[in-house]
Amino acid sequence: MTLTSATPDVVTDRWRGAARPQTSAEWLVRAEEVSDILSADAVERDRAGGAPRAEVELLKASGLVTLLGPVEHGGGGQRWETAYRVIRIIARGDGSIGQLLGYHYLWAWAARLVATDEQIAAVEEAYTAGNLLFGGAVNPRDADLVITEDGDELVFNGRKSFSTGGVVSDLTVLEGVLDGTDTHIFAIVPTDQEGIVFAHDWDNLGQRLTESGAVEIRDVRVPWSQAAGFVDREFVPLVYNTWNVPAIQLVFANFYLGIAEGALRTAAGYTRSHTRAWPYGGDDKPRATEEWYILEGYGQLQSKLWADATLIDQVGAEISAELHAPREETTPFRRGELAVRIAAAKLRIVEDGLETATKIYELTGARASANSVGLDIFWRNLRTHSLHDPIPYKKREVGVYALLGELPEPTWYT
């Protein structure tokens, strides 16, 4: 089955009657099944460039959308350690959908990061029971949405140039600044309303199916009671709410790794079935799979990705423990220490992933550059999103820690 040819009922019925995964290992198997479906026609769907509605239905039907949701409301009740692995697996099959799912997990957890206990319970019940997908209009580089007060309501107005997943989402996380103050407010609202207008202008080199284009917010109203983390209109700050950036930076690292792993896997398959040995070097081999430089090349790339996976999994286990621990137990030191190691993991997979997505052409041969092969999708996807924030600044963060022992201050990007 491919999503290009499948009818909607085939997608949604894929796991009807199947036992729901219970353990982390079973959820990873479910993710592999989804990834295999996505990989079958990832290039064709990327080129078509349509909104990924069938892809979202696939994620919902598989149960992956509610992986982190409470069991009592029908969710998987899994930990972030598993969610990170799921993101990576999905990205092997389709980098765009790995990003959509990763952003969804972060926004689904956003209530726990900043909201009150009552707000957390309401949000998690609603999205889990409803099997709803999150998008977000929270790009910090734009001038923030302006929020005004109207009695017991907050009114959001403004524009964001990025809103990943918004077009196909059920819920949207808004973030803006209360007019006349420097107070930032987060709120979760239904996406399908007149005041949320998408520009449909996402036309970038890679990650084409993430629907990351602009959105205009026009008089979107939210009750004060739904302003995340506010009690009697006053924000109650937590050290815990600064975990949002390290958590999403590791989302990035995992779908980068998934893209790189997908590139290496796809290239290896091509080399085994199509690449020809080079007959003019004086060391003739009957098959390309016996060529020393091809074996060396795959060995180098695989070694780097294994090393990256080890670091990413290690910090994934550690931040998972923090995200699932009582919120009051978080300390600034632990947050900073882990944030700098996540920065190290991210910078390593960006460099090693881009090397992999480029080097595979040397290991597959000239014919592999044909558009019909589609190896370019991996480089385009990784190159596009890895520009999210400058990697030299990640190197600097790690360098300052290694040389001076200084931890990064929490910002929108650290």
TrEMBL record:
Top-level division of the source organism's lineage: Bacteria
Tell me yes or no: is Oxidoreductase among this UniProt entry's keywords.
yes
Select a single GO molecular function from the record's annotations and give it. flavin adenine dinucleotide binding
**Keyword check for Transmembrane:** no
What keywords is this UniProt entry annotated with? Flavoprotein, Monooxygenase, Oxidoreductase
User: Where would one find coiled-coil regions in this protein?
Assistant: none
Which stretches make up the Acyl-CoA dehydrogenase C-terminal domain?
A: 250-388
GO terms, biological process: L-leucine catabolic process
InterPro entries hit by this protein = Acyl-CoA_DH_C, Acyl-CoA_Oxase/DH_mid-dom_sf, AcylCo_DH-like_C, AcylCoA_DH/ox_N, AcylCoA_DH/ox_N_sf, AcylCoA_DH/oxidase_NM_dom_sf
Q: Which residues form the Acyl-CoA dehydrogenase/oxidase N-terminal domain?
A: 40-121
Query: What name is this protein filed under?
Result: Monooxygenase
Species this chain originates from: Agromyces intestinalis
